[in-house]
Amino acid sequence: MEDTKQQLIERWDTFLSKIKARCDEMITQANQGTDMFVPQLLFDNNAIGNAWTGIRNQIYELTEKISEAWLKMDRLFDDAGSSRAETELQREKKEKMSAYIQWEYEKNRIIAIAKAARQILSNVKKHVNENKLHNCTQCGFPLDIPIYSFRAKNVKCGSCGSVNTFKPDDRVVALETWVLVPLADECALINKEKEYFLQEKLNSTDSKKVTDQQVQELIEARKATYKSYYQFLIDNIPEKAEFYERQRDERLKWAEKI
Amino acid sequence: MNENEQLVQLKKIAGNFEETLKQVTLVALDSPKGGDEKWNQVLQKYQVEPATPSQKETFYSNGVPVIKGALPVELRKVYLSLRQITIKNYRDIFQNIKLSFDAEMYWDDFTTRLQNFIEEELNTYVGKIKQPVGVSNIFANAFSGMNQFSQGLKGSDLNTKRCNSCGSPRSDENQYGECYFCGTPLFETQKVIAKCKICGGVKFLEDQDKPCQFCGN
To answer: Is the pTM above the cut of 0.90?
Structure first.
């Protein structure tokens, strides 16, 4: 009986290690694909985003395979006379592997999109003339307009008082979506990782055994993620600071609801 | 027929169904893309009309890319026929027999299987015949949409809103009403149809029969 149990454990471990190897291989290939694509990007990273969405489906299939296999293994462990505690130990391996796979994907996706974002930023910087002067359309007086403005604005001429409406370069406006949000994600990555694994731990713990300290730790981790993410946006898009502050405060309130 | 006999008969029907299902699916899987002679024999046996070459062409050009196997739509029709045959087999034996409790429970479970097997089996079948998608395929596909949103972008622009009547520039950021110089609405929504010949003041559609609102002519 013990032999059968041991054989099953070995079979389960082998299966999980194969899944892990497949996941690592896919992530490596996806990173290679990203490295090949990034230099060809112009001003948007839509293609990289689409590719990583495709990878997510493949990753999802891997986690599905683990779940399907566990249904069979669970029964086999029962048939082999595994105690509840012993089977639980094997189930935990499944949870850990699923969590590992999903986080590997998420972490690498964020890093890949951030890599693309840096390339786009560099392209935009090459395209935009940072020394360009904006003169009043009426009197030619130089206006104080920052090149990296993210929305249209009215600027009153200091000399003749005429109102000039400034519409920023489309590439600069698009920086918010294609560059700054991905970089904010990357900035919050360390906190997000902590939050993710605390959440996973909580999900796999019996709800009756969850301690207040665990819940508090998760709340703090969530808050840290939001704070670092929004602080990056607030610092880099001062024109929309109020908007992002409001959004951050709403998220921080939500973070307390577990 | 006693309870045991009923169960034996029902299990036989269910067993036959599962066995035939397995065989049919295997023939479909083993055949090359679009089917072969062996598959055609299966279609004939289950009185399913084979798809025409143009129907096959439509499926292969629009559907999921596949590398082998009979057409899923044909397999589906075979499954439907198999379900009907199984139900007929049941009725032939149990038409006038009241099932015992255990036999009824068993048949209820099997009926659920009969209701759901087509979607489940077809899903698995398509998964087995479709072209495997690798990471390189995903990137190749994404490459086709590369820099889609990088075209037609415009550079920065600066302009000043001027009065339609006197040409005076907007002089206040919150100025959404009238021109400070001549009083003409700066962002008029009414259509200007003419200008006064004397002073050049604008005339709107509803003012066309009235004197000029600026000089009175």
So the answer is: no
